Amino acid sequence: MIEVESLTKQFGTKLAVDNLSFSVKPGEVLGFLGPNGAGKSTTMRMVTGFFPPTSGDAKICGISIVDNPAKAKTKIGYLPESAPLYQDMTVTSFLKFCAEIRGLRGSRKRDAVERAIETCFLQNVARQSIDTLSKGYRHRTCLAQALLHDPEVLILDEPTDGLDPNQKYEVRQLIKRLGTTKAILFSTHILEEVEAACTRAVIVDRGKIVADGTPAELIEQSGTGSLTDLFRTVTTRDTEAAA
Amino acid sequence: MSFLTIYKRELKSYFTQPTAYAVIVIFLLFSMIMTFSFGQFIKVGDASLEWSFFFWHPWLFMLLAPAVGMKLWADEQRNGTVELLGTFPTSTWSAILGKFLSAATVWLIALALTFPIVITVNYLGEPDNGAIAAGYLGSFLVCCTFLAVTMLVSAFTRDQVVCLIVSVFVCVLMVLCSYDDLVMQFSKMAPTSVVEAFTSFGVWDHFSSLNRGLFRVQDAVWFASLIFIPLLGTSAILSAKRA
Q1: Which H helix or E strand runs over B33?
Q2: ipTM of the complex
Q3: Does residue A98 sit at the B interface (CB-CB below 8 Å)?
């Protein structure tokens, strides 16, 4: 369960996220859409406790990320945008490290790592050094890290970015499957993904929510039957913003 | 306990990459060259190792310690893995301590590997082994001070080269500003209070007294604060970067 309550982030004079509120219940997959620079990643970084919000709060399973970050973070699995990894480690040793830091020990650690490797189809590269992996494998290694502790909340920043069509399909199926029991928030640029994996979607622009609804509702709202049209009407284009 | 996990990972990464080996070998090579050439170890018959061996350590550390510490946060920020660390249920302090102690351990190993010189003086003469132990302690503390400074610098930048250059510069200053010959030159040019303020950042006073086998409270306080304050600064910089 994610409850975002009037979350605001200001960088200097720039308002990156403006009084944003929404919630994601267990069993729900919320697609987080918006043009580049709309504040999607910043919002996710605040919800995961990486950035402190300027004001507002996010509650993870009822625990405030501002007041009790250590406890709230145990409930979250997070895939950052660039899928960062320690290049000098092997896939297995990286996952073991992440499991250990999440407090898993002994057979629980072994099982968690094995399960994550299986879920993300990493068996072939499990012993390989991360700096020799292709982008798709790196992405999935970082995704595996987010699943290790079987978190109640998953926050995925562009989980299908840089994957080939087969991998994209696999990841969408995975999100859908995990979404039956967990609360998932994921951002994407690919509008077809919304219909393929989300139960609900919000479109943000310049730090504010400009559209919110189930994929079917959003398509209806567009008037033309196309999410792309809706996206183009409700968000600001780079050229307009500069003008 | 997550501090131990981070410590183990960092230490392992020093030895899966060539960094630690290169630094340790160069340190051993130079410390022996200095001892037997300029240190005139054989000719003087310096069984306490004070001038022939330990004297060279600050000069070597000011160049080599930053090479071990430079990656600590710079690398983490370049790869984006700082975002993983920041969203794990662990405090910034456990990461700072784990990283600092792993770098210190590399140097502990380097210093331990100079043991043949201790065997040699014990074979050739009758040294005060207590004073030698104090000399090692002094060396190690100077090294830790430089590592702490390097860590603070690495929190500012994602570029390891910039970190290396800036930290070497600071460490060189800390060595030169209290070196007797130079202090005499300064005192001709500047008022005593200025010279004293400047030299108080230097390592020699504190290093030399330990090197002579003297345990003074002011040295303990000096080392403790010059190690702790940069670590505190590191924590402040890392959180300021996210605000």
Answers
A1: helix B19-36
A2: 0.89
A3: yes
Asked whether the beta carbons of residue B89 and residue A103 sit closer than 8 angstroms, the reply is yes
pLDDT at B41: 77
Give the pLDDT band (50/70/90) at residue A79: very high
Q: How far apart are CA A138 and CA A161, in angstroms?
A: 11
At residue A123, φ and ψ (nearest 5 deg) are -50, -40
Name residue A86's amino acid. Answer: Y
Between strands A153-157 and A14-24, the pairing is unpaired
**Four-residue CA torsion sign, B113, B116, B122, B125:** negative
CA distance B237 to A142: 26
Tell me if B171 sits within 8 A of B144, measured CB to CB. no
A145 touches chain B (CB under 8 A): yes
Kindly report, as residue ranges, where domains of CATH 3.40.50.300 are found in chain A: 2-75+152-242
Q: Please state the domain extents for chain B.
A: 2-242
- The pTM of the full predicted model, rounded to 2 decimals, is 0.92
Q: For residue range A199-241, what is the model confidence (pLDDT) as tens digits? A: 999 999 989 999 899 988 888 888 888 888 888 888 877 666 5
Paired tokens of B158: 């994602």
H or E element at residue A242: helix A238-242
Q: Which two tokens stand for residue A58?
A: 């996010």
The architecture that CATH gives domain A2-75+152-242 is 3-Layer(aba) Sandwich (3.40)
